[in-house]
Protein 1
Amino acid sequence: MVSEAIVLVKVNVGAVDKAMSFLKAYSEVREVASTAGHYDLIVRVVTDDLEKLHDFVTKNLHLIDGVQLTETHLIAKKIEK
Amino acid sequence: MKLDYRGLAILSGVFTSFVIFLDSLVLHTVLPNIYSLAILGSWTGVALTIIYALLAGKWFDKEYKGMFKISWSSAKYAVAVGVFSAALTFVYLYAAKNYDPSLIAPLLPIVLVFMIARDMLVEKEKPSLIELSSIFMILAGAVLIGFKSGRFDLLLIFIIVVVHNLIVTLSSHFQKIGMRTGVDSINFRLVTAIVIATVMTAYALPRADLSLKLLLGAAPLVATSMSFVFLSMIAYLISLRQGKLSVVYSLNLSYVVCSTALTLIVSAIWPAIFPTAVLGADSAIKFIGTALVVIGILTLVLGESYVYLFIKTKSGSSDFVFKKLSEMPEVVSVYQVFGTRNVVAKVRVKLVGKMENTISQKIKPIEGIIDIERLNLIKEQ
C-alpha cells in the first residue's frame, strides 16, 4: 500500500540549498520547499509501502550532509485542489 | 538533458505557441473555412484522446480505470465544460481567421483578470492595491497590443478580452467543480471532447466545406497542431506536479512571446500568410504592450504567499477540522496526519499581509483547533 508522509527537516546553517538539491533528485520526493519557522525544509514523500518510507527517511534523508533532525507526519487522508 | 518543472512549463508554453501558430496557418492557407476546421479539429481531438487513453491512460492518471467510467454527477460538469469550450473554439477560430497570432496570443493571458474577478465575487475578497495596479498594467498592455496601423482594434480586444476570456473563466469554473467530484482527468476530457465535437458539428455542418481534397490537405497540419496540444498538456501537468501553480502559469506565458515572435518572423519571410502582421512602428508598440501584460501578470501571481499550518486538534475533532479546512478557498491542500500534529494545511493568500487575517479570522475560530504552528514557505522546488 502506497505510503505518503510530510517530513519536516532541520538543517545546519548554510546547508539549506544543498540539502534541497539532494532531496529533489530522489524520485520519492514529490515536493520540497524551504521554510521559515522551527524547521528549514518541508518534504512530501511517497513510497510503495511503509517499510520503504522508513528506509528512505533513515537511509537517504538522514544521511544528507547538514541534516540535523527530522519529524515525520504520516498522511492518512488528503485533499489537494 | 532532464528538464525540471520550470523548463517543462516553458516548453509547454512553446508548444502552445506552435498550436496557435499552426491553427492560424491552416486558416490562412489550406483551409480558410473556420467551420471545416472546427469539425476536422474537434474530431481529431476526440480520436487522439481515445488513442491516448488506450495507450497510456493509466500512466497519465493513476485514477483512470477505463474508458467512459464516469458518473452522471461528474459527467454533467464535463458536458457544461464541453458546451462552453465549443463556443470558445468558434470565438477563437473567428479571431484566428481575421487576425494573426501576434495580435491574439498576448490577449489570452488576460483571462487571469477574470479569474481574479471571479475569486472576488465568489470568495468575497477585496482587491489589494498591488492587484489593482497589476490589473491596470495588464489592461493597458492589452490596449497597446491591439494597436494596428494607426488605430486600436477594439473589435479584436472585445472578442478576445471580453467574450473569449469570459467563456474561459466560466468553463474553468465548471471544470474546477467537476474535478472535485472525484472523476479522473482522462474521462472528463473525453466527455468534454465529444461534446465539443458534437456541438460544433451540429452548428458548423451546414456552413462547412467538407470536400475530401480540402480536408486531406489540411489533415497533416491539424494533426500536428493537435499533437502539440497533447505535448503542451503533458508538459504542463508534469510541471504542475513539482512546481507552484503561479510560477508554472507565469513560465507558461512564454507562449505569448513565442507566438508573437514566430508570426513576425514568418510574415517577414512570407508576408502573404499573415497580412495583418506588420513589422514596423506598430510592432514596437505591440512589444511594449506584451511586456506590460507579462510584467503585470508576473507581479500579480508572484505576489502570492504560502504557509504550511501544522494543527493540533481536540480528541475526535480532526475529521471536522479537516472538512472545514478543505472547504476554504485559501486552502490549497489539506492532510490528516499521524504524528505530533493532527492536520496539516497548505494555505495561499494573494498578499503576505493578508495571511494574518486569514489565519486569525478564518482558521483559528474553527471549532476543535487547539494550537497552530506555522511554517512560511520561502522557496519551492
Protein 2
Amino acid sequence: MRFEKIVLKNYRQFRDVEITFDKKSSNDLHIFVGVMGTGKTNLLNAICWCLYGDEPYLSKDSQQLPRVNLKAVEDAKLGENIQVCVEVWIETEERNKYIYRRRENFRIYEENGKPAPHSQTESFEVEYIDEEGNMKIFGDVKEELQSYVERFLPKSIREFFFFDGERLDRYFKEATAENVRHAIFKISQLDILDRVSERIDKILSEIRREAGKINPRIEETREKLEQKENALKEIIRMIGECKEQIKRAKTKIEELREEIARLPDVDALEDERTRLKSKYKEKISFLNEKIKEKRSLLIDYSKTILLWPAIEKTLKIIEDKRKNKEIPPRINKDMLEEILKEQICVICGRPLDEESKHHVTELIKEVKITSETVQELYRMEEFFSQVKEQIKAFEDRIRKLTEEIRQYERDLEEINKKISEIDKELLGRDQQRTRELHEKLSYWEEIYETNEQRLGMLNSQAKNLEKELDELNKQLDKELKMENQAEKLKRQIDFCKEALQVLRKTKDSIMTQIREEIHRKTREIFFNLIWKKATFSDVIIQPDYSIALIHQMGYDCLGTISGGERETLTLAFTLALHEVSGFNCPIIVDRPLAMVSGPPRKNIVNIFSKVSNGKQIILFFTPDDYSHDISEILERTASNKFDLKMSKDERETSIEVK
Amino acid sequence: MMSKVPDRLYIDENDRKLYDEVIVEIFRGKIGDEEKRWERKDQFLLAMAIGFKNEVRRPLKKKEGFIRKEYLKPEDKALINAIAIYDTGSIEVLLDKQKVFSIAEEYAHAGIRILHGEIKSGEPGSYLKKLEKDLFEKYKGLKNRL
C-alpha cells in the first residue's frame, strides 16, 4: 500500500492543504523541506491523529497549542464552529482506495478577552472505493473502523514505519536483543496466541475448581496448585521487571561510561602536567647551564681571538729573539746589577775598580732582558701555544654548544606545547559534571548489580516453583484418576494443558521462523545497501535476539560503527521486518540526516533513493540538512519535492510543490 | 731597573657606570662576591680586547681601582703583556709593568665605551649574538695561520 493523498483542514499550522503523492517514476520518493517550526513533524502527527487518534510526535511547543489552526480561530466569530479535518488516502496493491477521515469540531468561546477554541465532538470514518469506483462509507462501529486501519498500518507496529532520524540512529545503540525480540514479536502479531493462552489458562482454572468440588483432597491440591501458579506468575512478572531494570541500567551505564570516557581524565592529566612541569624545570636549568657555558666560552674566546694579532706578534718576537740567541741571555743582567750595586765581584770577591765599573755598566746596557723577563716570556709562549690549540677547537665547541642549546629549546617548546594542550583540556573540564556523572554511574551500577542478584534469586525461585508445580500437577492427576467422577474433568484438564503447551511451542516456533527469516533478509538488504561492503562480513540475529554486525576481521563491531552505518542497519532491519511481516507500508522518516555527518550523508540518501524503487519513502528535511549535494542525489529520483513555507505571522504553513 | 709593579688595574671613574650596565646585559645571573670579581676581570679583559680590535686607546682622566693584581691569573697577565709588546713592538716593555698596565687600561677605557655603545644600540640579548658573529669572522681569517 501507499499514501496517495493527505488533506489537512484547520489542523495545527495547516489551514487548508492537500498533498498528493503522485508517482512520476518507478521511484516512490517524496521530499519535504522546511525550516524548524514549519510543521514537518506535525505532518507525521496529522497522519497518526487521523489513523489512531493520537499525536505521539508533538513538540513541547505544539503540546501547549490547540489542534485547531490559530489563524482560523482568530478569523472566527464567537460561538462559531470550526472543524479540524485530516484525511489520509491510501491505495492498495489491488488499486482499491481507503480514505480515512477524522474530524474534530471546535466552538469558539471568549476567555480573558480572547477567542478560545473548545473541542466539542470528534468523529472517524473510513471510505472505501473499489477499483471500479464503487464507494462505501463505514462509520458506525468504532472497533470495525479501527480494523480497517489495522489491516494496513497496525498501531502496535507503527514505530516500524514512522521514524525520526534520532530513532534511526539510536535503534541499535540501545539494548538491542530486547528491541529485536520486541520487533519480531510485534511484527509477527503473536499477541493473539498470548490472548488464547490466557483464555485457556482461565478455563483450566475453572475446570480444576469444578473438580475440587468433588473431593476435598482434590480441592486442597488444586488450591495449592493455583497458589503456586500465581506465585510463579508473580515471579515471572518480577523476572520481567528485573530484566527491564537490568536492561535500563545497562543502557544507562554504557551511556554514562561513553560520556565519562569523552571527559578528560583529570587526575591522569594533572599527573602528566606535574611530570612535564618538572621536566620543563630540569630542561630549563640544563639550557641555562649551556647558555652560561656558551657565554663564558665566547667571552674567553673573545679575549684570545680579538687579541690574536698581539699574541701572534709576541710569539714571533720570542721566536726571533731565540733565533738571534738573545734569549736565553748569555749574561745574567740581575747579577751584573748586583755586582754594580755591591761594588764587589760576586764571583771572585774582588772590589770593582773604575775600569771594571765601566765595563759592567756597558754590559748591563748590552743585556736588555732579565732572566725574570725571559721566564715570563717562556710562560707566555707556553700559554699562547695552548691558546692556539684552544682557538683551533673554537668552531667545533661553539657549534656543539649551539646545537645543544637548540635541542633544549626544541625540547622545551615540545613540553610547553604538551602542557598547554593539557591546560586546554583541563580548562574545558566541568568538575561538577564529572562528579555528577560518576555519581550517576555508581547509582546505575548498583541497580544493575542488585537486579542481577535478584534475577538469579528469582530464577532459582521460579525453578523451585516449577518443580513444585510439576509435583502438584502429578498429585492432582493421581487424585483425579482415583475419583471416577472426575474422569471427564481430568480429560478436559489434560486437553487444556496440552493446548497451552502447543500454543507455547507454536509461539516459539513462529518466533524462531520469523527471526531466521528476518535475519536472512536483514543480511541480504544490508549488504545490498551498505557502501563499505568489504568492511563487514555478516549480520547475525542470534537465537537470544541479540544482533551482531561482524567485521571482516571476525569481531562484532556494532558498538563502534558510524551513525550512517547504524542508520543503514536499522533501515535494513526495518525493510526486512516489512517484507517478512507482509506489511508493505510506506516509510516516513523525519530528518534522516539529523545524526549523520560527513560523507555517509550522501550514502544514506542514496540508500533511500534506492529503496524507493518499490516502496514509498517520504522524507522530511530542514534546509540545512538538505544541502546541495543531498538535493542533487534525491531530486534525480524524487517524484515530488514539497517546500513548507510559514506565513509572516507564523500562524499558517503553506506547501509549494517544486 | 724594573719599575714598580702596580697592585691593581685601574679604570676611569666614569667607566664604572658603563661596566655596571654592561654586566646586566652580558654577565647576567646570580653571582657571589668572589665570582663578581672574576666577572669584573672578564669585563675588563673583554673591554681591553675590544679596544685593541678597534685600535683605540684612550688615556684615563681620573683613575679608579678596579681589579686587584692577585685576581689576575698568569694567562690574564700574558694577554695584557702581549698587547703591550704588540703596541711597543718590543718585549722590553715587560720591564715596565706600569706601562704594561697603563696600555691595557687605556685600551679597556676605549673598549668599554665601544662595548657599551654597541649594547645600548642593539636589541636586548643581541650583543652575544653579534660577538659570536664577529668571532666567527675573525676566526675564519686566522684559522689558516694557526
